[in-house]
Specification:
Blueprint: E1 2-5, H1 7-15, H2 20-30, E2 35-39, H3 40-53, H4 58-71, E3 73-75, H5 94-102, E4 107-109, H6 113-116, E5 124-126, H7 128-133
Parallel strand pairs: 1-2, 1-4, 2-3, 4-5
Helix pairs in contact: 1-2, 1-3, 1-4
Amino acid sequence: MKILIDTNILISAAYSRKSPVGQAFNKAVSNSVYECIICEQTIEEFWRIANRKFPEHISDFERFMAQALLLMEIVPVPTGIYPDEKEIRDLKDRPILRAAINANADILLTGDKDFIESTITTPQIMTAAEFIAL
């Protein structure tokens, strides 16, 4: 099962691996049933948010990301428009959906309301709590 991990999951897991979101991340990357992927935009967004909101934790975030990237495959963000994109209100989130669809992800693991409140069914949009319960 292929899982694309969204930025907010990474940020929360980097901040606290013991939090429910951190536990969901740990479950995804440590279980051989799952193939975890991340897109280029997510990495850029991760660093932009980390530097802006958590400058005092940058060294911790660097260690986290160095380890995380060993456990995930980086997938490209296609430039073409996908029909399901219109379901996502935030234009900045649409490339993440494109990357998930292009990589044939089964699950998009996120806490982003734009994804959660959409009617997208492929990939399946899951919160950390839903993924832990899976």
